[in-house]
Amino acid sequence: MSRKAGRMIRIALTGILFLLLFSGSASAAGGVTITAACPSLCGEKVITREGKDGLVLSLPGFWDLSKIVLETEEAGCLYLGPEKTEIPLGKETDLNGLVGQRFRIRNEKQAEMGYLTVLQGSQITALFLEVDADELKKVNRSKENEITEGRAVCFEADGTTAYNGALSQLKGRGNNTFGYTKKPYQLKLGEKASLSGMSRGKTWILLANKADVSLLRNQIVLDMSREIGLRYAVQCAQADVWINGAYNGLYLLTEKIQIGKERIDITNLEKATEKENPSPFAPGRIITEKSAAYPLMRSYPDVKDPEDITGGYIMTIEKPARMKDYVLAGFRTKKELNIRIKEPTYPSRGQAEYLFKRITEMQRAVMAKDGIDPETGKSYEEYLDPESFARKFLIEEWCKNYDFFGGSQYLYKDSDLVDPLIYAGPSWDYDLSFGNMADRGYSATGRYLTAYRRNHNLYWLLYNHEAFREKVGKLWLNVFRPAAAVLLGEKKAGPDGILCSLDEYRERIRKSAEMNYKRWNVSDAAKGPGSGISFDRAAAYLKNWIAERTAWMDGQYTPSAAE
Question: 312 and 414 in contact (C-beta within 8 Å)?
Fold first, then answer.
């Protein structure tokens, strides 16, 4: 490089540095942190984040804007906007009228400090997490890492405290969703608590919904599942989340799918198994078997069984590629139905073998034209609960769930001593539904589940049986369609209803959605045509899609007068 070229580069770099430090642009706020609190309502504080347009201060929806206390180490006083409105530091000040606007900020010497935008979220749950910052970076890099110490505070929409105490776990979760910049998390509280009116529990899930620009798909399906009476349907609530004072976005706070008296209330085989094994429990290595008898089986042979191994189990119908590429406990039947065993976490060889036999017999019965397993002489109704599968069929068909054939398709089974049937549900993972995938199912019309004719598609196999089709039709007419009418605004919800109209869902989170998209860019990772671009566009697309889909299903699943 010549001396002249080097000199030109140095001049250019100096000019860029000057602009960054002194131009009064958004970047001029670099290094400035403003802290806000509302001491009259809670003891938590929030801090600004630096975005592309300057500093953004995101406030909880329940805070009183007339009683906000601002602080910063970079100035003794702040002046906002062209009028240079004085904002005293360390004292209550009124921010009403300033929310949603972008102001130039100056210090007491009138030196420019960049720009500030003040936002306030919706009247929803506010969750504050405090963890080690370096450990958080590790958690965001890999699901293998977790934080085991911290603090959590959860406020209800009205500002009352639902939980204030220890945080014993924070880790990443999800498959494809963990690859997005906005991470989904699993958190565990120090003790059980009821958050947002949900059943008490220690372990909770924060769904990021990064691929769903409307931020509503998961909530709508989970609420619909509860509305139509799917057993053990997951409860959920929208929540703004702050981590170490910095706003991290709008999440869907949900119960975790797990065995427990206030979750899936079936026999706890995991606890029973642990009692039969030395303490502390050590499951040993997972072993993979492949043979003529078992196309694929993975289990923990070192684990000793209790007397009853017939339940309870939580399973998922898994994608073939995932069972092939990852070492997951479970099995593949001879007719290519892949089952992952989620609970017990470390299934023994005997437990995996029991479930393999049971699922194989169920699949044979469903595949048979007369619905009877030719080897056992049992009907499919002696293996599975048709009611739960019919309700789940309507959910998956209605929303055109991208993962209907595997991935998040849950099944559960109690001990035979209590109930020998396999149940469909709970519902889970719907950010890629309702026309949000351009490469599959974005059209609001047309058959979906039954168009995928494979032996591992239990929904198609079941729909081949007249009794099941009749059940689906009656449920659509008497249960599902009235619930959809509430969602579409055709009728008002009853006093005990779970659902509300799509317009109300949208407006409930509008302010928080604005904050979320100041924190995170609108995703274009998975949206179908017209389902993204902005929150309002996405919500409008979702509403129109659901209306069109519901009308189409009216013509397909409503029983005729003769029936």
Answer: yes
CB atoms under 10 Å from CB of 411, counted, come to 25
CB atoms within 10 A of CB 239: 25
CA 349 to chain centre: 32
Kindly provide the b/e burial profile for residues 296-330, where b requires at least 16 CB atoms within 10 angstroms of the residue's own CB: bbbbbeebebbeebbbbbbbbbbbbeebeeeebbb
DSSP annotation of 476: I
Q: Where are the alpha helices (DSSP H) in 32-161?
A: 133-141
Give the whole-angstrom CA distance, residue 222 versus residue 408: 13
Query: Domain limits of the chain?
Result: 23-41+60-117, 269-467
* pLDDT reported for residue 526: 60
Pair 178, 143: CB distance under 8 Å: yes
Residue recorded with tokens 């005729």: 560
**Above 60 in pLDDT, residue 3?**
no
Strands 236-243 and 125-130: parallel
pLDDT digits (tens, 9 = 90+) for 185-195: 999 999 999 99
Question: Does residue 11 register a pLDDT over 50?
Answer: no
| Radius of gyration (C-alpha) of the chain in whole angstroms | 27
* Enclosing H/E stretch for 325: helix 320-325
Task: Give 99's DSSP letter.
Answer: B
Indicate the range of 274-278, 438-442, 544-548 predicted with least confidence. Answer: 438-442
Q: With a cut of 90, say whether residue 16 has pLDDT above it.
A: no
Strand intervals (E) in 132-211 = 146-147, 151-155, 161-172, 185-193, 201-207
Give dist(CA 38, CA 92) in Å, integer: 8
**pLDDT value of position 390:** 98
Residues 283, 429: contact at Cβ < 8 Å? no
Strand partners, 186: 171, 205
3-state SS, residue 273? helix
Contact 318, 336 (CB under 8 A): no
Give the model's pLDDT for residue 525. Answer: 67
Nearest to 245 by CA among 102, 42, 497: 42
CA distance 106 to 90: 17
**How many CB atoms sit inside 10 A of residue 367's CB?**
17
The reported pLDDT for the residue numbered 561 is 32
Place of tokens 């997490």: 129
What is the residue type of 213? V
Let me know the angle formed at the C-alpha of 472 by 468 and 478, rounded to the nearest 5 degrees: 140
Name the residue with tokens 């929310």: 99
Whole-angstrom distance, CA of residue 342 vs CA of residue 329 = 8
Q: Note the pLDDT of residue 175.
A: 84
Higher pLDDT residue, 532 or 389? 389
List Cβ<8 Å contacts ≥24 apart for 81-84. Answer: 84/110
- Give dist(CA 528, CA 432) in Å, integer: 9
Q: Enter the tokens of residue 252.
A: 């869907």
Q: CB 176: neighbour CB atoms within 10 A?
A: 15
